[in-house]
Q: What sequence folds into this?
């Protein structure tokens, strides 16, 4: 798996690589080589391609000057615009500009009278290269850099970002006033946090990680976050032995549903079946059990007493009396947060002892009503709204730095947490955070979380610890969604479609494992 490096860690890696004998110029040259290949992919190989490079005064600009030289040598029509005065260039950038100028590249600086006219001509280029700001930038953009960003975005011309789209905070992915919307980003060494959150995950476009020659000992140093890969997940998904029977493949209890939301129990049960559970039982009010029976004859039913269409507190001792029959459980989907439900959950969770997935209204019970988390192994699966209630923060604060949010949730809740959303993150105290790259925008529709809960509960019931069940479960769930996007269409497939695709997704994961992933979307 690829570790995620913060910009501070990358700077330290730069320092140590250079101290260990790797010249800074060599790192820049290799980075520029990857970028030049990115230009070829984005704009084609034809001589005469019109490329404009917008460079800053620091090392990111230095990378841009090397790219300008290489583009010029490839026969491209090359403009080089520098969002600073020549006297403001840092040492390494100045060296690379002189090398580019010696090969015929002519730079136009921000204090040149041609600067604004050149910016207005951006729309007449075939490709723009954003080398304005690097991962060291944390202040709101202004001046010539801001003018250059605005010119890139209004041009309508595809932009290739060097290491990071300018104007994006490298740690949080938030926008520093204005930022470049790139078609493609080439980042160096390892993925970085901005790719997975905030505006960064949108403005980075398609991204690739370029190996620019850091020593392997530096690249493999442990970090507190990693990008999941197929090999790791495929190696952990439980195998089914030839001589096994249904009782050995996991017995799951799903406590879900209400009169107004009967489908949640059906979706969680369907996904448990499709992910390989041996036995699935739905515990719910009679109307929920009837709805499940009409669609899933394979599921066992556990009717519970009700009050006004929701589970009654009187159901708690019934559940607890039969808890030893199950290897894992799901609590929450579709239960509502009516007062009888809160009382029921408080009584059950206080004495529950089997691994459990807590989702939806079980999380609301913990956040709103002070229901205590059980002492057994739990996986909490909040979306940003539910996480905001759990941590008593705004959704904007939750989303401002999702990695920080997961760290905070681990510290406060003391259990495995899966923060859902684009690039879902799993965290558990004492373990590195896991970041998922499978899935697509089509997942943003009702019922998808219920399907995810069923997958994780199945893995828990098959003896995978919570941290691994959550990590593998979100990767598997996302892979099923990707198959749906391919086979049905990127928007409009349903949660049922994702559940039905789980067996095919498992085959895809376990038979086509790849050692890594170079590109994200």
A:
């Amino acid at each position: 798996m690829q570790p995620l490096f913060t910009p501070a860690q990358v700077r330290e890696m730069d320092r140590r690589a250079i101290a260990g004998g790797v010249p800074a110029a060599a790192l820049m040259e290799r980075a520029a080589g990857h970028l030049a290949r990115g230009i070829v992919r984005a704009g084609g190989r034809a001589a005469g391609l019109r490329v404009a490079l917008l460079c800053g005064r620091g090392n990111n600009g230095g990378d841009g000057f090397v790219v300008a030289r290489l583009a010029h040598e490839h026969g491209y029509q090359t403009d080089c615009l520098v969002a600073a005065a020549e006297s403001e260039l840092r040492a390494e950038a100045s060296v690379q500009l002189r090398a580019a100028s010696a090969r015929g590249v002519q730079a136009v600086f921000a204090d040149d009278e041609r600067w604004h006219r050149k910016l207005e001509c951006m729309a007449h280029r075939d490709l723009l290269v954003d080398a304005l700001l690097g991962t060291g930038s944390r202040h709101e953009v202004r001046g010539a850099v801001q003018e250059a960003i605005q010119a890139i975005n209004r041009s309508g011309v595809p932009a290739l970002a060097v290491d990071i789209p300018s104007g994006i905070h490298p740690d949080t992915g938030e926008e520093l006033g204005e930022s470049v919307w790139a078609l493609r980003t080439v980042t160096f060494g390892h993925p970085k946090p901005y790719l997975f959150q905030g505006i960064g995950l949108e403005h980075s476009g398609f991204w690739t990680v370029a190996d620019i020659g850091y020593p392997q000992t530096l690249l493999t140093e442990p970090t507190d976050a990693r990008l999941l890969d197929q090999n790791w997940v495929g190696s952990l998904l439980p195998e089914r032995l030839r001589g096994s029977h249904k009782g050995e493949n996991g017995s799951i209890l799903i406590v879900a549903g209400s009169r107004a939301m009967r489908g949640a129990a059906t979706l969680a049960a369907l996904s448990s079946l499709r992910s390989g559970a041996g036995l699935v039982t739905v515990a719910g009010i009679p109307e929920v059990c009837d709805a499940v029976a009409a669609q899933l004859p394979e599921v066992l039913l556990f009717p519970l007493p009700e009050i006004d269409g929701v589970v009654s507190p009187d159901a708690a001792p019934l559940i607890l009396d039969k808890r030893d029959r199950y290897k894992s459980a799901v609590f929450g989907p579709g239960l509502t947060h009516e007062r009888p439900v809160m009382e029921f959950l408080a009584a059950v969770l206080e004495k529950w002892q089997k691994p459990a997935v807590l989702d939806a209204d079980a999380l609301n019970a913990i956040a709103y009503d002070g229901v205590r988390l059980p002492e057994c192994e739990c996986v909490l699966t909040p979306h940003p709204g539910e996480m905001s209630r759990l941590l008593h923060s705004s959704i904007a604060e939750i989303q401002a730095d999702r990695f920080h949010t997961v760290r905070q949730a681990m510290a406060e809740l003391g259990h495995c947490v899966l923060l859902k959303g684009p690039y879902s993150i799993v965290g558990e105290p004492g373990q590195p955070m896991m970041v998922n790259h499978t899935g697509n925008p089509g997942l943003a529709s009702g019922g998808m979380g219920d399907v995810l809960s069923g997958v994780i509960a199945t893995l828990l019931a098959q003896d995978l610890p919570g941290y691994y069940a959550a990590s593998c479960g979100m990767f598997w769930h996302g892979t099923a969604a990707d198959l749906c996007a391919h086979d049905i269409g990127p928007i409009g497939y349903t949660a049922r479609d994702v559940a039905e695709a789980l067996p095919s997704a498992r085959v895809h994961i376990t038979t086509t494992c790849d050692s890594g992933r170079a590109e994200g979307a």
In short: The radius of gyration is 26 Å. The CA atoms of residues 183 and 503 lie 34 Å apart.
